[in-house]
DNA sequence: TATTGTTATACTCTATAACTATA
DNA sequence: TATAGTTATAGAGTATAACAATA
């Protein structure tokens, strides 16, 4: 007996239970390729960028805290922070009272690069969403937010 | 002078030009983790699954054609087809008239595993989209399709 | 003894290049 | 010579484990 379910396809119109995953993968790959193209000339890979995101969102924090924030491991974080430190984008400073802990803080140059990335990403984001109406873009971001943050109330 | 642009955040409510990319990444990672959990007990990794998808969408084809379909390289494809062949899910048969080419064809077992994956993925997909209304789920899939397949008309 | 960070090591995956067999 | 497939090798990235310093 044949299955009642539609089979997954790598084409538009997939009605299978894998459609969401395949579409998210394809849409992400496309968006990521373009946005990484913005970061690359600035000397940033995604792993560096996401650390800057965490630092600018949560403020200066330890490497261990960064590991929790970005879902990495401490050995990898050492290298990422090394890269950022050597590029002059963050500083390591021992925490007074517990010298095991190094507080990672963005430098002025780090924040400047971070802001420049945003300026360069603006037209890229507009181009990515160019096929959608303005209301549709906001709707997509809302639906994705509810998918990415289940159980959290949507920002009004 | 400070930038006028909102800065990227790893939290809901991000209004930055990186928001779409970060949300797609997070939503994909969540969906992928759950859907790969469906494939793993069947002995399939994503690279095997996407080859089965291509074969069931485009019919039997050469390894070279599979490379084009999934965006891989021929050395990697050899190993993926090796795995599928050893598991009895596909066959390699020389093409009559050009014995350089091996036609890859899903076996009955290959199609059965493919269909079983769909059956197991059904409740997972429902759970992933559970926070959305039924109309919203269809809308999200439509918007993602237009993002993932720019320039192609949306399926009605 | 437990924890932060570092270093060393191993492992996975992919990409590159060399090789074979057919054409 | 050109192509399909295979094999061998190397590279990037990550994860695991041992280590040093501090608590």
UniProtKB/TrEMBL annotation, chains A, B:
InterPro entries attached to this UniProt entry: HTH_MarR-typ, MarR/SlyA-like, Tscrpt_reg_MarR-type_CS, WH-like_DNA-bd_sf, WH_DNA-bd_sf
Cell membrane found in the keyword field: no
Keywords carried by this UniProt record: DNA-binding, Transcription, Transcription regulation
SUPFAM superfamilies given in the database record: Winged helix' DNA-binding domain
SMART domains linked: HTH_MARR
Keyword Transcription regulation found: yes
PROSITE patterns: HTH_MARR_1, HTH_MARR_2
Pfam families in the cross-refs: MarR (PF01047)
MF (Gene Ontology): DNA binding; DNA-binding transcription factor activity
Endpoints of the signal sequence: none
GO biological-process terms attached to the record: response to stress
Annotated ranges, domain HTH marR-type: 1-149
Protein name: HTH marR-type domain-containing protein
Taxonomic path: Bacteria, Bacillati, Actinomycetota, Actinomycetes, Pseudonocardiales
């Amino acid at each position: 007996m044949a299955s009642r379910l539609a089979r997954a396809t790598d084409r538009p119109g997939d009605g299978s239970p894998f459609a969401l995953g395949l579409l998210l993968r394809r849409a992400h790959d496309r968006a990521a390729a373009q946005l990484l193209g913005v970061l690359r000339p600035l000397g940033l890979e995604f792993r560096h960028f996401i650390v800057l995101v965490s630092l600018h969102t949560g403020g200066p924090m330890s490497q261990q805290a960064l590991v929790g924030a970005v879902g990495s491991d401490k050995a990898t974080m050492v290298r990422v922070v090394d890269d950022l430190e050597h590029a002059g984008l963050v500083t390591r400073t021992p925490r007074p009272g517990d010298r095991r802990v190094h507080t990672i803080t963005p430098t002025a140059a780090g924040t400047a690069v971070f802001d420049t990335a945003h300026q360069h990403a603006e037209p890229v984001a507009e181009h990515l969403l160019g096929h959608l109406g303005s209301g549709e873009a906001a709707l997509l971001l809302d639906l994705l937010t509810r998918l990415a943050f289940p159980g959290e109330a949507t920002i009004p």
